[in-house]
Amino acid sequence: MNVHTESLIAKIAEGTNKLHSRIDAQCAAIQRVRDIHAPMDAVMYAGKSQHVDLFCTGCGQDDGNWSIWPCPTIKALDEETP
Ligand SMILES: [Zn+2]
User: Fold this and answer.
1) How many CB atoms lie within 10 A of CB 57?
2) What phi and psi values does residue 7 have, to the nearest 5 degrees?
3) Which pLDDT value is given to residue 82?
4) Cα(55)–Cα(82) distance, rounded to whole angstroms?
5) Is 65 in contact with 81 (CB distance < 8 Å)?
6) Number of other CB atoms surrounding residue 41 within 10 Å
7) H/E stretch holding 75
8) Whether 67 contacts 54, CB under 8 Å
9) What's the CA-to-centroid distance between 27 and ligand 1, angstroms?
10) Within the chain, what is the greatest distance between any pair of CA atoms?
11) Where are the chain's structural domains?
């Protein structure tokens, strides 16, 4: 292996390590957002129509109500890209 090839391999390895670090940081950031927008069970309406809905722990609405989970933030994170 010549010096040029060794230098190229070293640069590729360095770039790969930087990308892994960035991916790890981005995954951690996404997890922090998911932790804020976690689902919470809430029992709705006592009696015959009682049921459990999921609400977002991070979102509220202007009228003071909770937002249904998955909220727009979680939907944006879970959207599949073509
Ligand atoms: Zn939310």
Assistant:
1) 15
2) -65, -40
3) 65
4) 28
5) no
6) 10
7) helix 72-78
8) no
9) 18
10) 79
11) 1-36, 38-82
Q: Report the Cα 18 to chain-centroid distance in Å.
A: 21
Low-confidence ranges of the chain (pLDDT < 50): none
Q: How many C-beta atoms surround the C-beta of residue 7 within 10 A?
A: 10
pTM: 0.76
Q: What is the pLDDT of residue 42?
A: 87
Q: Which residue has the tokens 């996404």?
A: 30
39 Cα: distance to centroid of ligand 1 (angstroms): 8
Q: What's the pLDDT at 48?
A: 85
Residues within 5 Å of ion ligand 1, judged at the Cβ atom: 37, 56, 58-59, 71, 73
Question: Per the structure block, which two tokens stand in for 59?
Answer: 């979102």
- Paired with 40 in beta bridges are 55
